[in-house]
Amino acid sequence: MVSQITRGIKISVLTSFEGTYFKNYKIHFAFSYQITIENHSKDSVQLISRHWEIFDSLNNIEIVDGEGVVGKKPVLRPGELHTYNSSCLLASPYGAMKGYFNMINFTSTKNFKVIVPTFKLCVPFAMN
């Protein structure tokens, strides 16, 4: 698990290899990840959007921007957390993801970015 705190918002990530799949006549490596967002600040916040940079060892980079996470824009009061699961396909057995969440602080009404730390995606049978 990797974790990082930005402005009192803690992001923790767990990853798992789910298997290989054929798509468009190519093999793909499927990974799932679980993200937990914890509000350790004194203010209520809401996740508005996300930005991902997805890398694989073949030097492919995919940028993904979108509203919320898995169709939700969670509001977190102080001490609350939100956990969600998602997945991605890579063209190689090694990769990584990083990004950020755009959030709004309800007390100051200001937008801010919460960093999602870089997390590795690696098939277990390919590790030394």
UniProtKB/TrEMBL annotation:
Domain ApaG: from-to ranges: 3-128
SUPFAM superfamilies: ApaG-like (SSF110069)
Coiled-coil parts of chain: none
One GO-annotated biological process of the protein: error-free translesion synthesis
NCBIfam families: PRK05461.1
Identification of the protein by name: Co2+/Mg2+ efflux protein ApaG
Source organism of the structure: Flavobacterium nackdongense
